[in-house]
Amino acid sequence: MKSVSTVIIGAGQAGLAMSRQLMQRGVDHILLDRGAIADTWRTRRWDSLRLLTPNWANCLLGDDYQGDDPDGYMDVAELVTRLEAYAHRTSALIYSATQVHRVHRSDDAYHIETSQGPLQCRTLVAATGAFTQPVVPALSRAVPDSVYQTTPNDYKRPDDLPDGGVLIVGAGATGVQLARELQASGRPVTVSTGGHIRLPRTYRGHDIEWWLHTLGLADERFDAVDDLDRARRLPSPQLIGGPEPVDLNALQARGVEIVGRIADIRNGEALFSGGLRHLCASADLKMNRLLDLVDHWITEWDLDSQLPPEPRPTRTRLPATPPLRRSLVDGGIRSILWATGYRPDFSWLDAPVFDRRGRLRHHGGVVDAPGLYVLGLPILRRRQSHQISGVGHDAAELSSHLRAYLDGQAYRAA
């Protein structure tokens, strides 16, 4: 059985960031991935996807964007190429095409059963990411067989769906982006909207991501966030990797129909909540509170002449009476795309470290088991933890904790 100090499961941006930090701290380690580097990006994302964050923000710690379009938005192919180059520069030792079947702990070590044979390590880092398993509600089982169902993990392009109307459930970043793409393909599109985050792509001369960094919000620590559990479950903002708006107003202007949160499927009908207007008003209010902070910062730094005021996005406009039901048997809806979020997949981890809801127990990435860490989850140690620009900072802190553990210092929460 091969033995090493640390095994990192996952060779995406989180695993590569941790690998670099462990090298700098002299910790021998290997990375395992079920496919190649950045396998999830390669195999479980749609063809037209571009990153939501500008290119300048898509660099791991210790790396800088060297291209000629820092304010652009790279596609998946470019991201994969950059992650491969990063792995080459850091000489990361990666075992590709290695499926992890089971991990358990005994005799102060983690024993790993893989498709390439057993491994043993003293510390283990789960860096498989937050966006692994699509979350599909149980009510999907009541959808008539005549309606095709899919998730963003399996969707690649509009031609994957049958001709005819599409119901997209979920209005986070994924839902609104795919609504725009499918409507442009000529299909009638309806978006079922629950709670969502509305943001402008740019405001007062800068990308909204620039403002989140400048105001310090992207780096807000996890232990300073009110209602951390709720914050970790919030959807991604309604943005696209480009300058075009994709909020509910923009979608409606393109002909997309907006309905409320899907509440049930009964007798061949999808039933929608009547609370849509309240949810949209709440999203508008929170967006304007953020823009108030931007305006205040500009005035405080006496920059109004350089960054002049501009009109804010208008409030979300809705039909006077949004539909509360839609037939799934009359042929108007031919497919449903469940853009209802993701969850991480830790099915391989055989350890008493999960709560009653099956969620991994951890404090800022230090799991409730000696020598076990997780990386790449939303608001793990700061608000930008799941982003490429944030995961490196988390890796630096957690690798320091891991090194101390290997050196025999007492196990403690970080």
Topology of this protein?
Elements: E1 2-9, H1 13-24, E2 29-32, H2 39-43, H3 76-90, E3 94-95, E4 100-106, E5 109-114, E6 117-126, E7 133-134, E8 148-150, E9 165-169, H4 173-184, E10 189-192, E11 202-203, E12 206-207, H5 208-214, H6 228-232, H7 248-253, E13 257-259, E14 262-266, E15 269-272, H8 276-300, E16 325-327, E17 333-338, E18 342-343, E19 362-363, E20 366-367, E21 372-374, H9 388-406
Parallel strand pairs: 1-2, 1-6, 2-3, 6-21, 8-17, 9-10, 9-17, 10-13
Antiparallel strand pairs: 4-5, 5-6, 7-18, 11-12, 14-15, 15-16, 19-20
> Over all CA atoms, what is the radius of gyration?
22 Å
Structural class, by secondary structure, is: alpha/beta
Order of helices and strands: EHEHHEEEEEEEHEEEHHHEEEHEEEEEEH
Number of helices: 9
* Contiguous uncertain segments of 5+ residues: none
Categorize the overall geometry.
Answer: globular
Mean pLDDT across all amino acids: 95
Tally of domains: 2
**Secondary structure: helix percent:** 25-40%
- Tell me how many strands there are: 21
Name the beta content range: 15-25%
Major pleated sheet? 7 strands, mixed
Instruction: For the record, give the distance between the C-alpha atoms at the N and C termini, rounded to a whole number.
Output: 31 Å
Q: Mind explaining what this structure looks like?
A:
By secondary structure, this protein is of the alpha/beta class. The protein has two domains: 2-132 and 344-406, FAD/NAD(P)-binding domain (3-Layer(bba) Sandwich); 135-338, no CATH class. It has helices at 13-24, 39-43, 76-90, 173-184, 208-214, 228-232, 248-253, 276-300, 388-406; strands at 2-9, 29-32, 94-95, 100-106, 109-114, 117-126, 133-134, 148-150, 165-169, 189-192, 202-203, 206-207, 257-259, 262-266, 269-272, 325-327, 333-338, 342-343, 362-363, 366-367, 372-374. Helix 1 runs parallel beside helix 3 (76-90) and helix 1 crosses helix 9.
